[in-house]
Amino acid sequence: MKNKLLFSSILIIFLLWMLSCSEEKNPVATGVNPVISKVKLQDKWSTQSSGFYKTEVWVNDPQGLGNLTGVYLTVHESSGGKEIFSDSLYDEGSYHYPEAGDVLAGDGVFSNRFQTADISESVDQAEYIFRFIAFDMQNHESQIWENLITFGPNSPPVIHQISAPDSLSFQNENTIFSITVSDSDGIEDIAQAYFESKSLNRGFTLYEQELYNDGDFENHGDLLAGDSIFSTRILPEFLAGKKGQYDLIFHVEDTNEEQNMAEAKHLIYIENFKSEFVAFDIPDVILIPPGSGEINRELITAEVSDPEGLADIDSVYFFSLKPDSSLANNGQPFIMVDNGLPYNPGGNLWIETGDETAGDGIYSLSIFADNTSLPGVYTFSFFIRDKAGNLTGPVKKTLQLTQ
Q1: What is the C-alpha separation between 276 and 384, in angstroms, rounded?
Q2: Is 11 exposed, middle or buried (0-12, 13-18, 19+ CB in 10 A)?
Q3: How much is the pTM?
Q4: Are 195 and 211 in contact (CB under 8 A)?
Q5: Which helix (H) or strand (E) holds 10?
Q6: Beta strands 264-270 and 244-254: pairing type?
Q7: Beta strands in 337-375 (DSSP E)
Q8: In 3D, which of 22, 233, 259 has the Cα closest to residue 155?
Q9: Measuring CA to CA, which residue among 208, 209, 231, 211 is closest to residue 221?
Q10: Burial letters for 354-390: b for 16+ Cβ neighbours within 10 Å, e otherwise?
């Protein structure tokens, strides 16, 4: 027993000695230094651009983000390492340095914006090393983070032609939007093409979808990969919630993240048609139970369709006119759901009402009768509202509560 205790004591002393030695040899392991976890900046900068390139650095600190004081940037020639530029990045929400473009103060993201001419006046292609280091209030330094950035002449892409119809509805099958593009740096310099839609009635702009130059005609509507034509196939989902005149606004971006300078847009009129009721499942009669605390439940459903697809359905609901000519639910509509949630008597019966399958176009709601229910004929007036504002209804159905 004494030998076991002696061995355990020796082992503990040895481990403590090893730990103290490792701390002396590697002071960084004490966990006081800031750490750069991420750097975001473009890897190609145009020497022909007068625009600003935003640079962001994510930093953590063991003592908390409030202990950080700044991030320092130096730029060096890739050959020889000569320093040619230096500046700071800030995390103060652009309060003192609005030109830096920082968004939120104290979130550990340090930002600044630079022009290529700030760093180098040469218009020739060259590579530079961007070197970042973070500091805290105790002057602890982070690790050095380096990015290799290419400077060089670049011309923004140009959109020459837009191919799109002047009007569009669900009746237009296999519609394809396309643009003809050029880039003096080569068509392979195009990194992205996409379009937005702007409602002239509502005044807001939405990102829509990408355009492709991959030769995938079946999925994207593009005929030939690597040519000057970028295309996209328009699916019915595009029409959901749209009605009236829209500007289609097209964008092309190159590997320098420069876009077409001239606005490229096309005016289109989008038709949106009303939804329709397909079928109802409503019992003819519900019995009013005689005893207190007893409840009879029935599920009523309304199957609907929409020419622009079920994604265009905003709501399905009904009003209930009672036998005494007053409206049930204080005159408010009964909202039906298509969420696939089973009936849960202990839950929210407006949501967990017993709908069978989510997204199948069959909207459901459980209705109940107890011994306080008013007997007689109830008239339900059903409506559908779609996301474009079209209203379908009323479609009236009756149900009798009897004792």
Answers
A1: 8
A2: exposed
A3: 0.70
A4: yes
A5: helix 2-25
A6: antiparallel
A7: 362-369
A8: 259
A9: 231
A10: bbeeeeebbbbbbbebeeebeeeebbbbbbbbbbbeb
Beta strands 167-168 and 264-270, pairing class? parallel
pLDDT in tens, the chain (403 residues): 434 333 334 333 333 333 333 333 333 334 899 999 999 999 999 998 888 999 999 999 999 999 999 999 999 999 989 999 999 999 999 999 999 999 999 999 999 999 999 999 888 889 999 999 999 999 999 999 999 999 998 889 999 999 999 999 999 878 999 999 999 889 999 999 999 999 998 888 999 999 999 999 999 999 999 999 999 999 988 999 999 999 999 999 998 888 999 999 999 999 999 999 999 999 999 999 998 889 999 999 999 999 999 999 999 999 999 999 999 999 999 999 999 999 999 999 999 999 999 999 999 999 999 999 999 999 999 999 999 999 999 999 999 999 8
How far, in Å, CA of 396 to CA of 303, rounded? 14
- SS3 (DSSP) at 22: helix
Distance, in Å, from the CA atom of 187 to the CA atom of 372, rounded to the nearest integer, reads: 75
Q: How far apart are CA 76 and CA 127, in angstroms?
A: 9
Give the C-alpha separation, 16 to 31, whole Å.
19
CA torsion 352→357→363→369, rounded to 10°? -50
Residues whose CB falls within 8 Å of the CB of residue 77, separated by 6 or more in sequence, listed in order: 84, 126, 128, 129
Return the residue matching tokens 């969420």: 339
